[in-house]
Write a structure and sequence with these properties.
Pfam families: TPR_1. It is a single chain. Helix 7 packs antiparallel against helix 8 and helix 9 runs antiparallel to helix 14. The protein is built from 31 helices and seven strands. A hairpin with a 2-residue loop joins strand 6 and strand 7. Helices cover 59% and strands 5% of the residues.
Length: 743
């Protein structure tokens, strides 16, 4: 676009200065952003990869596939999570953890945000460099401005553990392909190296990066076709084509194999692992999200076919880009054939992955942010489309100020939103749907938790300074708990607590708007009762801080009420009260009463799962947890409790229980008169510790209760043999003998 009304400047220097300003700005702003819902999982994955390369352990090399060759469900337990995450290379997570060793004075997740912001800046920078390849440094500057003033991309760049790094290496790879197309038929070592490096990291971060190997081949074919078309394919030298194909194939093969360099699991079989996991990706069902789209709550596997197109290329796009997409045909009006090739390649890299997403019917949620990488190439295309439109219209509009002025007005809208709503740039919605107000109740707004840190900041500034001797207790129900605990732990007068809503053991709660999926009547239930503060974006509340006004009956008073009028909520409350008193069997009994009233009450099953976990009765806990998730698939507490159950079962199966755990579990079964289970548990203990006299005595006592007196005497004899002064065993044996005598 010719901006002749601006005085003559060195656009290359201007590009560099603008880039320096942006990287400093982004690095400084990044610490204002919350850690996201999935940050912990990826960060810990990076730690395990770093431990592998340090030689500490080989957890990062364990297979993410089960015995049947299918993806492990990472939601089942910590062990499943650790194995399942090995299906990702985790380059960005490794990079953050490696660098953090030298910058320990910064908070872990603040440091990740800084690195994410730098990677995000490089993404923006290379968009500008691609613009420069299409139309010079001036177009490069405009492209850089266009991409920075895409609020969703700018906001995501500050704290994304996977989407932005993948998008960055995607655009790096595109840049080097365009440079390759300009240099062909020469292929320099430098270009080959950069292509191998960037494509290998791309695949490492997400397996869909394998598609870029096809993009490389398509780009080469289009170059060859255009080069030979005008000559009617008459001067083709097969030897030269063969050598070029060999070099391109070599780049692709090396990029594929290099994927394993920073990926421990892929190192087990660099040739097979990436493609094997890619082909099995559609089997993965480890995460299902319920999200609102077009005012309807939908399963993430049940979104309409156009979900990704609308989410990425319309409702989250500012006007200058939406208009730019409409102007794309002008790219093909009187434009050099090679520039058309580069533009077409960019357009293909933006749209083709979305077509694959539709055809593959993949899991898609949170505005298809997993495919956010398709947006930057489209932004470059839109910028170039504006430029070509300006050239076309110059025939009809003599003024060189009108179109640039109109474009600047369009750019002011996202700029104003970003300045007004920092650090919520990622929650931008197009004016064509009414902005954030239009999205409220129609589209998911803050799934990742951008509002959590601002909510904690408000609590610190307004609540933590009260004249209390003890810290203010804060809870949050939805999602990854570390995203609030991490910040609360830094504030002396605020304390994170993991308790239920219907409990007196918290003072303030942070409630995310996305929790509406559990109570979908927005008009009647939002904001929640007792709201003391709202975190807003453009005046729309996305997060609420509520004060706890819960009043507690005594257990006796509540039981008396329930004896006259049984209610689900009443027994849920009673279950919690017993739980807090550590009367776990009583808590379970109250939850069972709830199930009698409503067999599909997921809260009751979750409470039972939690209580059984504490009692180490993991088989029963697992059943209860699975029932809770059957009726409420997105129940985070139940998911976490079920993880504990599965981990406990695995520890017991692998004989990793301690002596105290075996004895406590046996006692718990004895307490509920499940004597056979008590015997089984103590027999397991004896396999680990053959001379445990208490285990033999417990077997004796359980057999007495079952009337198996001969077996009881046999067990107590062994107990007394091991410990001659064991009076309780002697008494149990005496009782068994008396019962035989009295038959």
């Amino acid at each position: 676009m010719n901006l002749d009304f601006i005085s003559k400047i060195d656009y290359r220097k201007a590009f560099i200065l603008l880039g320096l300003f942006i990287v400093i700005l982004m690095s400084g702003l990044s610490i204002n952003y919350s850690m996201t819902e999935d940050a912990r999982v990826h960060h810990e994955h990076g730690k395990r990869i770093l431990d592998y390369f340090k030689g500490k352990n080989k957890i990062a090399q364990l297979s993410p596939l089960d015995k049947k060759g299918k993806y492990i469900n990472i939601s089942l337990s910590q062990e499943h999570l650790e194995k399942g995450m090995n299906g990702f290379g985790g380059f960005f997570d490794l990079l953050c953890n490696f660098l953090y060793q030298f910058f320990g004075f910064v908070g872990e997740y603040e440091f990740r945000n800084i690195i994410s912001a730098i990677i995000g800046f490089l993404l923006f920078l290379f968009c500008g460099l691609i613009g420069k390849e299409l139309g010079g440094w001036r177009l490069g500057i405009i492209t850089l401005v266009f991409v920075v003033l895409t609020p969703v991309l700018f906001g995501q760049a500050m704290n994304s553990p996977k989407d932005i790094p993948f998008a960055a290496f995607y655009i790096f790879s595109i840049y080097h392909v365009i440079k390759l197309l300009k240099e062909l038929p020469e292929i320099s070592f430098k270009r080959g190296f950069f292509l191998v490096f960037n494509i290998s990291i791309l695949i490492n971060i997400r397996l869909i990066g394998l598609v870029f190997l096809g993009n490389l081949g398509i780009a080469f074919f289009l170059w060859w076709f255009i080069e030979n078309y005008q000559q009617r394919f008459k001067n083709i030298v097969l030897k030269d084509i063969f050598l070029l194909l060999l070099k391109i194939s070599g780049i692709a093969i090396l990029a594929y194999l290099a994927t394993a360099i920073f990926w421990p699991y892929a190192q087990t079989n660099p040739l097979i692992v990436p493609i094997d996991l890619f082909l099995k990706a559609t089997q993965y069902k480890g995460f299902v999200s319920t999200q609102i789209f077009e005012g309807v709550w939908r399963n993430s596997y049940d979104m309409p076919w156009y979900y990704s197109f609308k989410s990425l290329l319309f409702i989250s796009m500012p006007l200058h880009l939406i208009i730019g997409m409409l102007l794309i045909p002008f790219i093909y009006v009187k434009t050099d054939s090679k520039i058309k090739l580069y533009s077409s390649f960019l357009l293909f890299t933006s749209l083709f992955p979305l077509v694959l997403l539709i055809l593959g019917k993949a899991n898609s949620y949170d505005h298809s942010r997993q495919f956010l990488f398709t947006v930057p190439p489209m932004i470059v295309v839109c910028t170039f489309a504006w430029s070509r439109f300006k050239v076309f219209m110059s025939k009809y509009i003599k003024s060189k100020v009108i179109l640039p002025s109109i474009l600047i007005l369009f750019l002011l809208e996202p700029l104003q939103f970003m300045a007004k709503n920092h650090p919520f740039e990622a929650l931008y919605f197009s004016p064509l749907i009414g902005g954030v107000s239009g999205a409220y109740g129609n589209y998911e707004i803050d799934y990742l938790g951008f509002a959590i840190k601002p909510a904690v900041d408000w609590l610190e500034n307004n609540i933590s300074n009260t004249d209390r001797h003890e810290p203010v207790r804060v809870r949050m129900y939805y999602g990854e708990q570390l995203k609030i605990k991490y910040y609360l732990d830094k504030i002396p007068n605020l304390e994170y607590v993991a308790v239920r809503e219907d409990s007196p053991d918290w003072d303030y709660g942070v409630v995310m708007l996305t929790e509406a999926k559990f109570d979908k009547d927005l008009d009647k239930n939002w904001p929640p009762n007792n709201t003391v503060h709202k975190v807003t974006v453009d005046g729309v509340p996305i997060c609420f801080i509520v004060k706890n006004n819960f009043k507690v009956d005594t257990i006796e008073a509540l039981e008396q009420k329930l004896s006259k009028q049984p209610t689900e909520n009443g027994y849920i409350q009673l279950s919690l009260m017993y739980y807090n008193k550590e009367s776990y069997f009583k808590s379970i009994e109250a939850s069972q009463k709830v199930v009698e009233l409503n067999p599909k009450n997921s809260i009751a099953y979750n409470n039972m799962c939690s209580a059984y976990n504490i009692l180490l009765m993991y088989e029963r806990a697992k059943y209860a947890g699975e029932k809770a998730l059957e009726f409420s698939p997105n129940m985070t507490l139940a998911t976490n409790n079920l993880k504990i159950s599965n981990e406990g079962l695995n520890r017991r199966k692998n004989n990793k229980f301690t002596k105290e755990e075996y004895l406590r579990l046996g006692y718990n079964y004895y307490s509920i008169k499940d004597y056979r289970s008590c015997i089984l548990i103590n027999q397991e203990l004896l396999k680990v510790e053959p001379k445990n006299s208490i285990a033999y005595n417990n077997i004796c006592s359980s057999n007495n209760m079952l009337g198996n007196y001969e077996k009881a005497i046999e067990a107590c004899n062994k107990a007394v043999t091991i410990r001659p002064d064991f009076q309780l065993a002697k008494n149990n044996m005496k009782y068994a003998k008396s019962q035989i005598k009295n038959r």
